[in-house]
Amino acid sequence: MLYFVLFVVIMEMIQMKKHLLLLASKTGRSCLVREVLEIRRINSAHSNSVQHLTCLAKWTAHKKSKITGSIVTQLSSQHSKLVEMNRQYMRALIDIVLLLSRQGIAFRGHNETSSSLNQGNFKEICNLLAKYNPDFDSKYCEKTSYSSHRIQDELIEISSNYVRNIIINEIENAVSCSIMCDEARCFKEEQMSLCVRYCKDLNVTERFLGFIDCSQNQNAETLTQSIFEYLKIWGLNSFIPIVAQSYDGANVMSGRFNGVQARVKEKYPYAIYTHCMAHRLNLVVIDMCKLIKETRSVFNTLKALYTHFSKPSINKKYNDIQVKLGINKLSITKISDMRWNCRYKNCEAVKTNYKAIIIALEEEIENDGDKDVNEAIGILHVLKIKNLSFIYLYCIKY
Fold first, then answer.
1. What span, in angstroms and rounded, lies between the C-alpha atoms of 195 and 199?
2. What's the Rg (C-alpha) of the chain?
């Protein structure tokens, strides 16, 4: 545009110079006057022409663009702001996904319509951010807010793949690894959790790698094939040797000839099998609780305490006594052979709330108001008269 304007100005100057040279070659005053008038007429006609006015407008706009920037620059700046706003919005959604995943909280609600009082954790957090962040609110209120179930699943998948790739890179740098598998049933699906252990900066690192769907069959051959296929998908089956493996004591996993550990050894001869130490310790504790009289008495009493204080009216009185005594509330849970830490937690709860338990049982016996008094008398007798067994409650922690 600038070159075009300069071209027009130069052509005008050349035209004017031609007229002046023509005037110099002529004689007489009248001729000079006529030529000057002719030049004025030509200039006036040019100044009012569409081409001149268009060029003048473009020239004015060009000078103004030196200050405000060109249209292309302005459009590019606005586009950059829009891109940055969109990125900030997606970062907020990803942070919400990471928060809910890290805390193990459900994403969705039963009713996620705009009239619902509880739209689910994901959308409720979005509503909270929109309340205090105008930029987030402007994007979240649009028709395409990227908060649908499909987008949530995609964000979860992308985040998990990103973390998994970091773990895989660390395993590749460690050269070798070991695997650990255990059953992880989910409703009607049979799953197997796969964890890996490897050395990072001379420190042993343990990471969860993923769940393997093995609903089709749970024999040793299928489970082994599922493990190898999963490792192959993530590039760990070809050149990363497995030097150790650990499972529970089930025959399908630990079988010496046809178990999973034997089939893994066929491909990785140096993959030493170790029966999971946590499973072993749990089996030892269970057998000890059944065979030794004192420990059997302790844990039978813990079961009785759980059953007795599960009744709402008795539990309410027990909680009131805890508040009066200023004792930290620790609930007594059901003892299960599969929940490894339930025994320790129950022992700790009885140890901390021993005084409150005694007072609650004594008040219940004194009031003699319901049919559970005989049960309370029996528990109190064990706690007070045969309390030598409960020395275990103080020793287990140490």
1. 14
2. 41
